[in-house]
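User: I'm curious whether this sequence folds into something compact or stays loose and floppy. Could you predict its structure so I can see for myself?
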Amino acid sequence: MPIETKATKRLMTAVALSLLPWPAVWLGIYEIRNLVLTFALYHGVCLLPAAIRCRRLWMPALRVPNRREWTYVGLAAVVLLPVDLVFYHRFGARIVDPQAVMAVFTHLGFQRQWFVALGVYFVLINAIIEELFWRGTVLNLLASRTTYPRPLPQGKGVPGGAERGAAAWTALTFGTWHFLIVRLLVRSGWAWVTVLSIVLAGIFFGWLYRRSASIIVAMLWHGLVFDLPLIAILAVVMRG
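Assistant: Here's the prediction. I'll summarize afterward.
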């Protein structure tokens, strides 16, 4: 197959995969109206099969973090968890209506006794599968590399234009599909602000992956530094 044809095929595949969560999550939330099935459609139908099929793209980046990387993620998790909780206690009422959130979860078939399982699933499984798909698969396909990323020696150098475009598209599509969920959970006017924060997080995860050449580093930051505080805040919301 000519190089140009192969590159076009990879580009089209990446774009199609990155847009697939929109109809899948919409179907789960707005038609089936079941939270568990929504997770199954998103993780089990959209993300995991593609990540497994394209595993050769991210397997070279299965590097165990070094001591310094563990230290950074540990410090960030310890510092940001209480900071996020304090922020919610001070400003959360302007952003979230706890009764409305519980009504949405109840409408989607969620039961309070599932919360611990939801938290573990969200922090561990969600972070792993999302990173394998968004950074490990979509980002790699868009960057047209077989073994992406390569570490930057001594912190020098910047990604090329194609890589910046790939990172931007990956972060944008990673963040914007969350609008389907976020719009149901936050007060009017805050949905796109929240989505923007998720897009920025996606840019950061892509940078981590590119900078460290380790998909595991991105998974740790995703799960422990970003998702864990969300679960902690959700626990406070559910207590009213």
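Summary: The chain has one domain: 3-239. Residues 117 and 123 are 10 Å apart (CA to CA).
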